[in-house]
Amino acid sequence: MVEEARGERIAKFLSRAGIASRRDAEVMIAAGRIRLNNEPVTHPAVFVKDGDMVLLDGKPVSEPERTRLWRYHKPDGLVTTHKDPEGRPTVFEHLPPGLPRVISIGRLDLTSEGLLLLTNDGALSRQLELPETGWLRRYRVRVHGGVAPEKLKRLADGMVVDGTRFGPIEGAIDSVQRANTWLSVSLREGKNREIRRVMEALSLPVTRLIRVAYGPFQLGNLASGAAEEVNGKILREQVPGLGK
């Protein structure tokens, strides 16, 4: 009730407006890029109330819209970032027309494909990325070579690779095609390049990686490069406390 009376913290406001994550919004504040009612914002403990004007680089920031979520089928060869310093093509340069400014929930690396969730609400992105949310990420993974049962057991037990501890990963063989094996793989945390790193440590180089589900949301038959909005009622059912 106290925060409602004071308004909303400016980093949260910027996050809900789809400008940036709260952390990135705080970086913008520190860089002097944010003004509130034409006064510079110098620290994140500033509150935005109804009727206030927020400016980013001198341009007004629109009031946050209702929280929305899209399923996007990321193709191979795109980087999950708004701008790549190496000049590689990005997801956000190749989204279908008509989408508002969105950010991703988690990432898929350059050569990975499949389901990438997009939202206009940075607070939702942060919430669904947290390991505490406990949502299962499911993948289809093609590796070069045969997969012995003991390798699947090592996955299930968790592994340390180059000093990084990876939690248990569920793996099962789907099919064997000559020198390749297709696996169904599930994990809950999803550290940077986790599947590729643990498979490489097991001498099973990944030749294709497709995310087929993120929590309750499925890739389904969504065409490569296409995006489809999740029904608002379904979104509220799957993310308790989201509100309207």
Helix content: 10-25%
Q: Helix/strand-derived class?
A: alpha+beta
Described by the principal axes of the CA atoms, the overall outline is: elongated
Would you count the extended β strands for me?
17
Can you give the mean pLDDT? Answer: 90
Cα end-to-end separation: 18 Å
What does the oligomeric state look like here?
single chain
Order of helices and strands: HEHHEEEEEEEEHEHEEEEHEEEH
How many helical stretches? 7
- Which residues form runs of ≥5 with pLDDT under 50? none
Strand content: 25-35%
| Rounded Rg | 20 Å
Largest sheet: 9 strands, mixed
Give an account of the 3D structure.
The chain has 244 residues and is α+β, with helices and mostly antiparallel strands. It is 22% helix and 30% strand. The protein contains seven helices and 17 strands. The strands form four sheets. Strands 7, 8, 9, 10, 13, 14, 15, 16 and 17 form a nine-stranded mixed sheet that branches. Strands 3-2-5-6 form a four-stranded antiparallel sheet, with no helix packed on it. A two-stranded antiparallel ribbon has the order 1-4. Strand 11 and strand 12 form a beta hairpin. Helix 2 packs across helix 3. The mean pLDDT is 90.
What are the key terms here?
244 residues, alpha+beta, nine-stranded mixed β-sheet, four-stranded antiparallel β-sheet, 22% helix
Provide the fold topology.
Elements lengths: L1 H5 L1 E2 H7 L5 H9 L3 E3 L2 E2 L6 E2 L5 E3 L2 E2 L8 E6 L28 E3 L7 E7 L2 H8 L7 E8 L4 H9 L1 E3 L2 E3 L3 E8 L2 E8 L6 H8 L4 E9 L2 E2 L8 E3 L2 H7 L6
Parallel strand pairs: 9-15
Antiparallel strand pairs: 1-4, 2-3, 2-5, 5-6, 7-9, 7-17, 8-9, 10-14, 10-15, 11-12, 13-14, 15-16
